[in-house]
Write a structure and sequence with these properties.
Strand order of the largest sheet: 1-2-3-4
Bound molecules: zinc ion
Structural class: alpha+beta
Order of helices and strands: EEEEH
Helix content: 10-25%
Shape: globular
Number of strands: 4
Oligomer: single chain
Length: about 70
């Protein structure tokens, strides 16, 4: 299972997001909560992928064959 590491936009703490099971399967939403500042994070998976490209975060998210 893919892991979604994300940086809290408030305090820059690294947090782990998980797929919101209730979100649309064609545009999945990732959700999480920062354990430092309790900021709730919600981001579309597509937006998350863009963020990963920009940040070049090291993680085990599977690469596409693009
Ligand atoms: Zn935070």
């Amino acid at each position: 299972m893919a892991k979604y590491i994300y940086e809290c936009p408030v305090c820059n703490n690294l947090i782990t997001l998980k797929v919101d099971l209730w979100s649309c399967p064609f545009q999945r939403t990732l959700i999480g909560q920062c354990d430092k500042c309790n900021n709730k994070v919600e981001i579309y998976e597509d937006d998350y992928k863009e963020w990963v490209k920009e940040k070049e975060v090291k993680q085990d998210y599977p690469e596409g064959d693009e």
